[in-house]
Design a protein that fits this description.
This protein has helices at residues 2-10, 31-39, 56-65, 83-95, and strands at residues 19-21, 42-44, 72-76, 100-105, 108-113, 116-120, 127-134, 140-145, 154-156, 163-167, 173-177, 181-187. The chain is an alpha+beta fold. It folds into 2 domains: 1-106, no CATH class; 107-189, Jelly Rolls, CATH 2.60.120.320. It has a 6-stranded mixed beta sheet, with helices on one face. The radius of gyration is 16 Å and the shape is globular.
Length: 189
């Protein structure tokens, strides 16, 4: 299920993630692990970095061991469950905003939208329609196109406006901001 989504979202026929967390309780014959080993994906072992959370372990490995400037890693099961784990996973996005990290779980996806101009292309029938932009990194001014309630040079902060419960209205969502944002979107895979 997750592999089909990844193939569709990132054209995984040609794209392979750089690293994934080696899930300790995962069946060694699972399709996901077999695929990772076959494709040469670096499987991070949590016991090597005992001070890291499940998500920060492979993100730390990407930051430390890869020279690929836009390395990408999806993390299934990173959202939902215990709130302290979810917050730690979000903190990994703050710690390494230059990496393309996608948190997945409990019907949601989350990833960093870098400052400047970005285009998000949601997968129809899988991503959306509910979405949000969260100023997790600090104060930001943002404009959007392609949402039901677009923003126009709108200031946002964690103690002020947060764009939640918005809806994707168009095939492409354009985001212009002066600082990084967290893009959240409903996910049904």
């Amino acid at each position: 299920m997750h592999l089909d989504y990844l193939r569709h979202k990132w054209n995984c026929v040609h794209w392979v993630p750089t690293a994934m967390e080696d899930i300790h309780d995962c069946d060694p014959s699972s399709l996901l692990l077999v695929w990772c080993v076959t494709c040469g994906v670096y499987l991070c072992h949590g016991w090597l970095l005992w001070w890291c959370t499940d998500v920060s372990t492979p993100v730390f490995a990407l930051h430390t061991f890869t020279t690929t400037p836009c390395a990408t890693t999806p993390h299934t099961g990173a959202l939902g469950g215990r709130l302290d784990h979810t917050i730690a996973n979000l903190a990994s996005l703050i710690r390494y905003p230059q990496l393309r990290v996608v948190l997945m779980g409990d019907g949601n996806l989350a990833q960093v939208v870098p400052p400047g101009s970005s285009t998000i292309v949601p997968v129809p029938g899988v991503e959306g329609p509910t979405c949000g932009l969260v100023p997790l990194f600090g104060d930001v001014v943002c404009s959007t196109k392609g949402l039901r309630w677009n923003l126009a040079d709108t200031p946002m902060s964690m103690t002020g406006l947060i764009s939640t419960s918005n809806l994707i209205e168009e095939e492409h969502v354009h985001v212009e901001s002066n600082a990084p944002l967290l893009w959240t979107v409903e996910w049904s895979c």
